[in-house]
Fold:
Amino acid sequence: MRRERYVLDLKFPGFPIQVKQLPREEMFNEVYSNEIFCEKVGKVLTDAAIGWVYGSWSSLPDISSIYRDGTDFHTPSGQFAWDQNIHFTNQRLQGVNPVVLELCTAILSAFKVTNNMIKPFLEGNTLDQAIKTKKMFIYDLTMLQNVPVGGSQENKELINS
Structure:
């Protein structure tokens, strides 16, 4: 019975398999859909208000300008740790899709880096040593290379590079 209700379908080659048609009882009901919509509208309005009050951001430190004492925008606990290896690793392992992170056993041709480029991250090892001692992992998102993206041409070039 489950196999008949949950027929799997590969909708996009290279992406995970999905359910062809979600059973009606598993879809969001109208009340919940409306709650999600209202929450999204609230967030869009909040974002607009932040932009209006604090202006646009051109650098990462500019974002910190919205966190001020006495406002509703409290400094996030991860604001000062985002660039640390342990925080990056936690984001990858506890993120939306942790199974994309894999042990690197060889340098892929698409991974165009040299020892000098990543030397600060190798903790005194060479790239080959890090691979041999199983300290090198790769988060390969090449499957997303030709996925259409919105935004400015500059953002599209950054994402597809």
